Amino acid sequence: MRKKFISIFLSAILTASCLFTGAQPAEAGTQKKNAQSTSPYTDITYTHADVFDGLNIYNGIDVSKYNKTVDWEKVKAAGIEFVFVRVGYRGYGISGTLAADVCFESHVTGALAAGLKVGLYYYTEAINTEEAIEEAQYCIEKAKDYNITLPIVYDYETTTVNGTKTGRKYNAKLSKAAATKNCQAFCDTIQNAGYTPMIYANKYDLSTLIDGAALGQSYKIWLANYTSKTTYTGAYEFWQYSEKGSVDGISGNVDCNYWYTDETLSENPDAVSISTAKAASVPAAVYTGKNITPAPKLTLNGKELISGTDYTLSYSNNLNIGTASIKITGKGNYKGSKSISFKILPKKVTSFKKKSASKSIKLTWAANPQADGYQIWRKSTYNEETHAKVKTIKPGSKTTWTNTKLENDREYYYAIRAYKKVDNKNYFSSYTYLTASTLPGSKKAIIGKKTKLYTNPSVKGESLATIPKSTKVTYLGRTYVTDENIVHHIKYTVDGHTYSGYIPSTIKLTF
């Protein structure tokens, strides 16, 4: 349910109704703190409040005459577990005529036949408790012929026509206390008839038009707040998180709802456990400052399962550096759940630079705000397979280190990575590499004889260019391929193109 936008034509009749609000299919699963789930009906990831830690979560839809044609079997197959059906509304004109939703019977019978749990909602324009009770009695009379197991809802929102607020409630300028009493009168009447009452309102109205905090202590609340993470702090059991869902079996958009409950909905008795399914490994991700929601492929007995149809995904601890969790919950023909994890690593170090001296190299880099510190690794010969750790920069703002007591005129190979300690475990970024030499600036040199310039310091294989004798080049330093095998690292410019490569150390250079 959203604020009603009613045509000028209908406004003349003064009995126009609210626009529909639908909800979305249900994904069940025990939630953890900061748990998230990606709705297959909006393709958006939603964060669930910590207060629902340990509860099951299901999705549902709510419908009215604005969802005229619904294939309920397809809706059920799409994963919908529950639905709220509009039973009727009160016209927003002066007379305030009670009106039935013309699709009420077909929606209720279709949803029940498909095996969905069903609740009802009534769009109110009551301006006093007597009218609120009248609306409740209307709902009770309609509900008695059906198996209504979810709450009967008092839909409290302001009618809007062509962008202008109007309606009996609005024009009556009800006080917050008076509007709250109407909610109480409706709910008490529903409760006395043996049904569960609930109040629907958006985040703003729960704080401004009615006393949502007080009502939430006595009745269930259905919160409307179209966002990926609600900041509403009052009590609620249902959350309408979007008005633009897409569910198979319903044409057009439909509102999406989450239901948080310790109740376990009945499963398909023939459902197969998903606990033995094989999930594709999830590679480590890099911290982005946003929730990371990978979607690994899942196979069971050689069959690839379909996300949203055969299972749903929910996430926890997937924002910050550390180990994140993905919970895979079976649905439809599959039941049970399994969890897999993946790592979130610090960002790679950037702006890794050097400043050379004759026997030292100063390294600098850009600070990583998420890092606790940095590790610097080095190798002294080109062919060494691994770097050796030479320095750990412990927590602090230091982003520079000078490597001293080095050999003059020699290239060294550095690697740096950031680390973050979480739960006594270090998480490392990927490496950033840098080659530096103990040569303060480059030198101009003249080649003693004709030679080939090689890409690789092995000075074998394909060459970059042939350098004539007496050609001027830029000397970058000595490259130790091994401790015994040394070559010259130079730059050679010809025809406007500069090549960087290697020549044998047997080639004489004159500086």
Structure keywords:
TIM Barrel; Immunoglobulin-like; 511 residues; eight-stranded mixed barrel; disordered N terminus; mainly beta; single chain
Let me know the CATH homologous superfamily of the largest domain.
Glycosidases
CATH domain class name of the largest domain: Alpha Beta
Number of domains: 4
Taking the alpha carbons of the first and last residues, their distance comes to: 82 Å
User: How many helices does DSSP assign?
Assistant: 8
Kindly report the average pLDDT value: 90
Shape: elongated
What is the alpha-carbon Rg in Å?
34 Å
Contiguous runs where pLDDT drops below 50 for at least 5 residues: 2-27
What share of residues is helical? Answer: 10-25%
Q: Report the structural category.
A: mainly beta
CATH topology name of the largest domain, in short, is TIM Barrel
The largest pleated sheet is described as: 8 strands, mixed, barrel
Percent strand = 35-45%
The total strand number stands at 37
CATH architectural category of the largest domain:
Alpha-Beta Barrel
Biggest β-sheet: strands ordered side by side in the sheet: 3-4-6-7-10-11-12-13
